[in-house]
Structure to design on (237 residues):
């Protein structure tokens, strides 16, 4: 399996090849409009769809969105059900756009805990888009970085393997993909919340005070501009 060398990425220092997005703030955005949290998630999904298109238009090749953490599954049942409803809508209808843009969908996370119909729909899009090698959308669903790391350790142990940094990375859900160059978090919080902890070792971090449904294409461009001005040294001088 190819192991990407991020230091040699053609996009280094300009457009990031891989952007991770922690889509935070849907609930607060809705609350500030006296609307239910589920409305915030719906508007968040619509924003995510627009942002994916925009990111590809400006030359980003891989986008990873954090749609559901392992912890989010413990939210009240009506909120989790509303999110499941959105996933059904997304994989059933909107994910077509991913295929139309000749990009590949990949789910990161433990899908076994999700309803079988959502799993089936997501796997169908994954299989149909597997032939595309250029752009990629990773959707982190029931994802937690610590779970991902423990899972990779157990895989290596079960195979009786000693690992290297590269072979270990290939056992993660993102195996074979470039590490994120830039991670954007919306919603005013400044933490990673168990998102891509191994892969984020040298990612640039960008925090926006905007709630995710209000995070516009121009806000995304501002994050890319900020990224382009940074000096990535990867621990060297
Ligand atoms: C965090 O905001 C957001 C989530 C837990 C869900 C993110 C999901 C989407 C944007 C929509 C659907 C995605 C797909 C793949 C169809 P929050 O609820 O924690 O906001 P808060 O911090 O304001 O409460």
């Amino acid at each position: 399996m190819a192991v990407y060398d991020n230091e040699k990425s053609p996009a280094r220092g300009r457009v990031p090849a891989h952007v991770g997005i922690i889509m935070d703030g849907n609930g607060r955005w809705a609350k500030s409009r006296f609307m239910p949290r589920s409305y915030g998630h719906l508007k968040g999904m619509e924003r995510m769809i627009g942002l994916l298109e925009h990111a590809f238009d400006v030359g980003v090749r891989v986008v990873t969105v954090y749609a559901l953490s392992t912890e989010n599954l413990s939210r009240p049942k009506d909120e989790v059900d509303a999110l499941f409803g959105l996933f059904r809508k997304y994989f059933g209808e909107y994910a077509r756009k991913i295929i139309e843009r000749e990009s590949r969908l990949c789910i990161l996370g433990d899908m076994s805990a999700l309803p079988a119909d959502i799993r089936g729909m997501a796997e169908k899009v994954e299989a149909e888009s597997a032939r595309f090698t250029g752009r990629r959308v990773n959707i982190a669903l029931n994802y937690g970085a610590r779970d991902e790391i423990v899972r990779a350790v157990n895989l290596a142990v079960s195979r009786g393997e000693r690992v290297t940094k590269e072979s270990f990375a290939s056992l993660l859900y993102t195996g074979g993909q470039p590490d994120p160059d830039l991670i954007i978090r919306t919603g005013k919080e400044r933490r990673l919340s168990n998102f891509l902890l191994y892969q984020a070792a040298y990612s640039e971090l960008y925090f926006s005070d905007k709630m995710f449904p209000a995070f516009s294409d121009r806000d995304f461009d501002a994050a890319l501009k900020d990224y382009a001005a940074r000096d990535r040294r990867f621990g060297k001088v």
Q: What stands out?
A: The two ends are 30 Å apart (CA to CA). Helices lie at 26-31, 37-57, 77-94, 96-100, 116-129, 145-158, 165-169, 217-228. The pocket of farnesyl diphosphate is lined by residues 23-28, 41, 44-45, 48, 67, 72, 86-87, 90, 139, 187 (CB under 6 Å). The first helix runs from residue 26 to 31.
